[in-house]
Request: fold
Amino acid sequence: MKLSPKYPGYYLGHLGHAYRLAGHFENAIAAFKAYEARNPGFGLVDLVIAYCQSGRPDLAEQTATRLLSRHPDFTIRRWASTQIRRDPTQLEVEEAALRSGGLPPGD
Reply:
């Protein structure tokens, strides 16, 4: 990313995931905000998780509201079905964060 200033926006999503999974929530939040700025509507799910994991439920709820305004059909169940990581414990933690942010569980 340092070598090419015109990298695709989704690189910021990957960077944010790496930071969040490493426990570097401030860096993750900055990356996800930059991702969403470049690609409106993207990175919001991850921001909800990062805000919850960093102890900021108010920002998680605000971001969840923005997410639902952009993606009204969003559900945690549908999101979970798209995840490629197979660590069930990590997915449970992330799903719990999304629930606490106020996102709908789904059918």
Summary: Residues 78 and 106 are 7 Å apart (CA to CA). The chain has six helices and no strands. The two ends are 39 Å apart (CA to CA).
